[in-house]
Amino acid sequence: MTLPAASNVQWLVDLVQQRLHVIGSGADAKTAGDVFDALGRDVRTRLADLSPHDLHNHPCCSIGLAVIHDDYVQLGRIGDATIIAYRESEVAREISTDFFEAREAGAVERARSQQQTRQEIVDAMFARRTEYIKGVYEESVFSGHPDAVFKVHAETLPLESIDTLLLCTDGFARAVADYRIFPDWHSLGHHAREDGLDSITARIRQRESGPTQAAAAKKFKNADDLAAILLTLESEN
Predict the structure, then answer these.
(1) How many domains are contained in the chain?
(2) In this structure, what are the phi and psi dihedrals at residue 24, rounded to the nearest 5 degrees?
(3) Tens digits of per-residue pLDDT, 61-113?
(4) Which domain does 215 fall in, by range?
Protein backbone atom coordinates (compact mmCIF):
# COMPACT_ATOMS: atom_id res chain seq x y z
CA MET A 1 0.00 0.00 0.00
CA THR A 2 1.17 3.54 -0.81
CA LEU A 3 -0.03 6.49 1.24
CA PRO A 4 -1.48 9.55 -0.58
CA ALA A 5 1.72 11.58 -1.01
CA ALA A 6 4.94 11.60 -3.02
CA SER A 7 6.20 8.94 -0.60
CA ASN A 8 5.05 7.31 2.62
CA VAL A 9 7.62 9.28 4.60
CA GLN A 10 6.47 12.53 2.98
CA TRP A 11 2.91 11.70 4.00
CA LEU A 12 4.04 11.27 7.60
CA VAL A 13 6.14 14.45 7.66
CA ASP A 14 3.33 16.52 6.13
CA LEU A 15 0.84 15.19 8.68
CA VAL A 16 3.21 15.82 11.57
CA GLN A 17 3.66 19.40 10.40
CA GLN A 18 -0.09 19.94 10.16
CA ARG A 19 -0.82 18.44 13.56
CA LEU A 20 2.01 20.32 15.27
CA HIS A 21 0.39 23.59 14.21
CA VAL A 22 -2.87 22.48 15.82
CA ILE A 23 -1.29 21.04 18.98
CA GLY A 24 0.97 24.06 19.40
CA SER A 25 -1.95 26.48 19.27
CA GLY A 26 -3.78 24.64 22.05
CA ALA A 27 -3.21 24.59 25.78
CA ASP A 28 -3.30 20.86 26.49
CA ALA A 29 0.29 19.94 25.64
CA LYS A 30 2.45 21.01 28.58
CA THR A 31 5.50 18.84 27.95
CA ALA A 32 7.39 17.34 25.03
CA GLY A 33 5.95 13.98 26.03
CA ASP A 34 2.42 15.40 25.78
CA VAL A 35 3.13 16.65 22.27
CA PHE A 36 4.58 13.35 21.10
CA ASP A 37 1.68 11.40 22.62
CA ALA A 38 -0.84 13.67 20.87
CA LEU A 39 1.01 13.32 17.59
CA GLY A 40 1.09 9.56 17.95
CA ARG A 41 -2.67 9.39 18.53
CA ASP A 42 -3.37 11.65 15.56
CA VAL A 43 -1.17 9.67 13.17
CA ARG A 44 -2.53 6.31 14.31
CA THR A 45 -6.09 7.58 13.85
CA ARG A 46 -5.35 8.88 10.36
CA LEU A 47 -3.67 5.62 9.38
CA ALA A 48 -6.64 3.65 10.70
CA ASP A 49 -8.93 5.75 8.50
CA LEU A 50 -6.84 4.69 5.51
CA SER A 51 -7.05 1.00 6.51
CA PRO A 52 -3.33 0.34 6.11
CA HIS A 53 -3.57 -3.46 6.33
CA ASP A 54 -1.29 -3.75 3.31
CA LEU A 55 1.22 -1.18 4.56
CA HIS A 56 4.27 -3.41 4.72
CA ASN A 57 6.76 -0.80 5.91
CA HIS A 58 5.44 1.93 8.17
CA PRO A 59 7.01 5.35 7.59
CA CYS A 60 8.97 6.85 10.45
CA CYS A 61 10.92 10.01 11.17
CA SER A 62 12.87 11.88 13.81
CA ILE A 63 11.42 14.94 15.54
CA GLY A 64 12.95 17.67 17.65
CA LEU A 65 10.71 20.23 19.34
CA ALA A 66 10.59 22.99 21.91
CA VAL A 67 7.65 23.53 24.26
CA ILE A 68 7.96 27.14 25.37
CA HIS A 69 6.33 28.46 28.55
CA ASP A 70 6.48 31.86 30.24
CA ASP A 71 9.60 31.11 32.26
CA TYR A 72 11.00 27.83 30.96
CA VAL A 73 11.35 25.77 27.82
CA GLN A 74 11.29 22.00 27.47
CA LEU A 75 13.33 20.55 24.65
CA GLY A 76 12.56 17.06 23.42
CA ARG A 77 13.60 14.74 20.66
CA ILE A 78 12.75 11.34 19.24
CA GLY A 79 15.27 9.81 16.86
CA ASP A 80 18.39 11.55 15.60
CA ALA A 81 17.16 15.13 15.58
CA THR A 82 19.61 17.57 17.16
CA ILE A 83 18.73 20.52 19.41
CA ILE A 84 21.30 23.14 20.37
CA ALA A 85 20.49 25.81 22.96
CA TYR A 86 22.63 28.96 22.87
CA ARG A 87 23.26 31.73 25.35
CA GLU A 88 25.02 34.80 23.93
CA SER A 89 26.42 32.67 21.07
CA GLU A 90 27.84 30.03 23.43
CA VAL A 91 26.42 26.50 23.49
CA ALA A 92 24.37 26.15 26.67
CA ARG A 93 22.99 22.66 25.98
CA GLU A 94 23.16 20.01 23.28
CA ILE A 95 20.52 17.31 22.92
CA SER A 96 21.62 14.74 20.37
CA THR A 97 22.65 11.12 19.94
CA ASP A 98 25.24 9.14 18.02
CA PHE A 99 23.29 5.89 18.41
CA PHE A 100 21.86 5.81 14.89
CA GLU A 101 25.16 6.98 13.41
CA ALA A 102 26.99 4.06 15.00
CA ARG A 103 24.33 1.58 13.89
CA GLU A 104 24.48 2.76 10.29
CA ALA A 105 28.27 2.73 10.23
CA GLY A 106 28.18 -0.86 11.48
CA ALA A 107 25.63 -1.81 8.81
CA VAL A 108 27.76 -0.25 6.07
CA GLU A 109 30.82 -2.17 7.26
CA ARG A 110 28.89 -5.47 7.36
CA ALA A 111 27.49 -4.88 3.89
CA ARG A 112 31.00 -4.45 2.53
CA SER A 113 32.75 -7.19 4.47
CA GLN A 114 29.99 -9.72 3.76
CA GLN A 115 29.48 -8.51 0.18
CA GLN A 116 25.75 -8.27 0.74
CA THR A 117 23.40 -7.95 -2.20
CA ARG A 118 21.24 -4.86 -2.61
CA GLN A 119 18.20 -6.84 -1.43
CA GLU A 120 20.04 -8.01 1.68
CA ILE A 121 21.03 -4.43 2.45
CA VAL A 122 17.44 -3.23 2.04
CA ASP A 123 16.04 -6.07 4.16
CA ALA A 124 18.54 -5.30 6.93
CA MET A 125 17.60 -1.61 6.77
CA PHE A 126 13.90 -2.37 7.24
CA ALA A 127 14.72 -4.76 10.08
CA ARG A 128 16.64 -2.00 11.89
CA ARG A 129 13.80 0.42 11.22
CA THR A 130 11.30 -1.96 12.80
CA GLU A 131 13.51 -2.20 15.88
CA TYR A 132 13.63 1.59 16.12
CA ILE A 133 9.86 1.89 15.70
CA LYS A 134 9.20 -0.65 18.45
CA GLY A 135 11.73 0.91 20.82
CA VAL A 136 13.89 -2.18 21.20
CA TYR A 137 16.89 -0.07 22.23
CA GLU A 138 17.41 3.12 24.22
CA GLU A 139 16.52 5.16 21.15
CA SER A 140 13.45 5.07 18.93
CA VAL A 141 11.86 6.90 16.02
CA PHE A 142 8.44 8.47 15.58
CA SER A 143 5.83 6.38 13.77
CA GLY A 144 2.11 5.71 13.65
CA HIS A 145 2.74 1.97 13.86
CA PRO A 146 0.32 0.33 16.34
CA ASP A 147 3.29 -1.15 18.25
CA ALA A 148 5.34 2.05 18.25
CA VAL A 149 7.19 2.95 21.43
CA PHE A 150 8.41 6.52 21.85
CA LYS A 151 11.73 6.98 23.64
CA VAL A 152 11.56 10.71 24.35
CA HIS A 153 14.74 12.46 25.45
CA ALA A 154 13.85 15.78 27.06
CA GLU A 155 15.44 18.51 29.14
CA THR A 156 13.91 21.56 30.78
CA LEU A 157 15.81 24.86 30.89
CA PRO A 158 14.95 28.24 32.43
CA LEU A 159 13.93 30.55 29.61
CA GLU A 160 16.29 33.23 30.88
CA SER A 161 19.26 30.85 30.53
CA ILE A 162 19.10 30.70 26.71
CA ASP A 163 18.35 33.11 23.90
CA THR A 164 18.54 31.02 20.72
CA LEU A 165 17.55 27.51 19.70
CA LEU A 166 18.71 25.50 16.71
CA LEU A 167 16.62 22.44 15.86
CA CYS A 168 17.83 20.36 12.93
CA THR A 169 17.79 17.00 11.24
CA ASP A 170 20.60 14.48 11.09
CA GLY A 171 21.37 15.58 7.54
CA PHE A 172 21.92 19.17 8.62
CA ALA A 173 23.94 18.08 11.66
CA ARG A 174 26.46 16.45 9.32
CA ALA A 175 27.94 19.93 8.83
CA VAL A 176 29.52 19.46 12.28
CA ALA A 177 29.29 15.77 13.12
CA ASP A 178 30.58 14.26 9.87
CA TYR A 179 31.87 16.72 7.31
CA ARG A 180 33.56 19.12 9.74
CA ILE A 181 32.48 22.10 7.66
CA PHE A 182 32.31 23.79 11.05
CA PRO A 183 34.53 22.67 13.93
CA ASP A 184 31.75 22.87 16.50
CA TRP A 185 28.18 24.03 17.15
CA HIS A 186 29.39 27.39 18.40
CA SER A 187 30.93 28.11 15.00
CA LEU A 188 27.89 26.83 13.08
CA GLY A 189 25.54 28.90 15.24
CA HIS A 190 27.54 32.06 14.57
CA HIS A 191 27.49 31.38 10.83
CA ALA A 192 23.74 30.67 10.90
CA ARG A 193 23.01 33.99 12.59
CA GLU A 194 25.28 35.92 10.23
CA ASP A 195 24.61 34.25 6.87
CA GLY A 196 21.46 32.16 7.33
CA LEU A 197 20.70 28.45 7.33
CA ASP A 198 20.50 28.21 3.54
CA SER A 199 24.20 28.96 3.23
CA ILE A 200 24.98 26.01 5.49
CA THR A 201 22.74 23.74 3.44
CA ALA A 202 24.56 24.83 0.28
CA ARG A 203 27.92 24.00 1.83
CA ILE A 204 26.71 20.54 2.84
CA ARG A 205 25.53 19.84 -0.70
CA GLN A 206 28.78 21.15 -2.10
CA ARG A 207 30.75 18.82 0.16
CA GLU A 208 28.64 15.83 -0.82
CA SER A 209 29.04 16.54 -4.53
CA GLY A 210 32.83 16.55 -4.22
CA PRO A 211 35.30 13.66 -3.83
CA THR A 212 34.25 10.90 -1.43
CA GLN A 213 35.03 11.79 2.16
CA ALA A 214 35.92 9.34 4.91
CA ALA A 215 32.80 10.38 6.84
CA ALA A 216 30.54 9.81 3.84
CA ALA A 217 32.04 6.34 3.37
CA LYS A 218 30.37 5.31 6.65
CA LYS A 219 26.89 5.94 5.21
CA PHE A 220 24.73 4.36 2.54
CA LYS A 221 23.67 7.70 1.01
CA ASN A 222 23.98 11.46 1.12
CA ALA A 223 21.79 13.55 3.41
CA ASP A 224 18.17 13.45 2.23
CA ASP A 225 16.69 15.25 5.24
CA LEU A 226 18.32 18.66 5.27
CA ALA A 227 16.15 20.85 7.48
CA ALA A 228 16.76 23.29 10.32
CA ILE A 229 15.10 26.13 12.17
CA LEU A 230 16.72 28.88 14.23
CA LEU A 231 14.56 30.43 16.97
CA THR A 232 15.24 33.60 18.94
CA LEU A 233 13.72 33.52 22.43
CA GLU A 234 12.81 36.39 24.72
CA SER A 235 12.27 36.04 28.45
CA GLU A 236 9.54 38.14 30.06
CA ASN A 237 11.60 38.45 33.24
Answers:
(1) 1
(2) -65, -25
(3) 999 999 999 999 999 999 999 999 999 989 999 999 999 999 998 999 999 99
(4) 8-232
